[in-house]
Task: structure prediction
Amino acid sequence: MYQIAALNKISPKGTVLFTENYKTATDSSKADAYLVRSQDMHEMTLPKSLLAIARAGAGVNNIPIERCSQKGIVVFNTPGANANAVKELVLSSILMAARNMIDAVTWTRGIPANAAQAVEKYKSRFAGEEIAGKRLGVVGLGNIGVMVANAAETLGMRVVGYDPYMTVQNAHDLSPSVRIYESLETLLPLCDYVTIHVPAMSQTVGMFNYQLMDSMKNKAVLLNFSRDTLVETEALRRVLAEKKLRLYVTDFPIDELLSESNVVLIPHLGASTKESEENCAVMAVTQLMNYLEDGTISNSVNFPNCAPGHKNADMRVCILNQNIPNMLGKITGAIASMNLNINKLINKSKGDNAYTVIDIDGKVSVKELKSRLNIEGVVSVRFL
Result:
């Protein structure tokens, strides 16, 4: 029986999927798997029993990925499960920015009396613009970026995009009339609105620096619903002070921007819908169960996807190993040394990590095989 610990509240739409082979871990230090949303795990001690972590959401900044890889812990996320929720918030933010909704509503709440008269006298100061015909630049055409681009186009916006790493599937899903640019330097000066949808990693942190933001169209609106670290804070404050940008809208408030004018700070509401939380929970639980029960890996951020299918053998061996030369040869050699017959073998790699699934026919001594697989480069071994 597998023990599952939820480090945050997880929608029952997901947890109800657990069968009688699972139970809630009363002690997280003995859990086989964690379900997590926002809990910061970087200072946590990861128990030896831990096989997997499923993040009910897309971002995994709160999980120590490298340490998990070293310990043979597969980390899952749920890309696309909250995409529609984020898309809707981005679209509402574009409309809000176009019509000066925040300032207008704030002003209206401050009217002491004679509201109708005051409104007629001062409403012109909040006159905005229509988004139809305006150009939207979508930086990052993953699940969310593609949905934003397609939806904005249906609202009459002229949409352009940038993503040098766009997948074949996302390219297929993207509206064919969205023009793709090869550089941000070419795209940004054309856009009235720019929305960021790229993951936060070493290559993207601070990608929106002063030079890039200064190249944007005068009075453009910049929206960031990915991560705060993608935009250099001091550079942003400078372009706002210089009136280069009209508005910055983000779902990631930071202290340095709390008092800035022309900044709209949303309290991280991107995935905060009932539907999104349910979708993420179902996806996270399903991925955990598939991995624990038959070794399937899908949507892992540190190990390769692998679908070994139904087990038609006496034993399935699931091996997480380093992606180094002759690793597969050493593994199969260890199995051959016991005169065991390999029914099926799958080997996948992702960066520095690899995953090997081997189905074996015949009687297998788990203790002996585990001993023979205790070789350099093998991180962990499971027998199913």
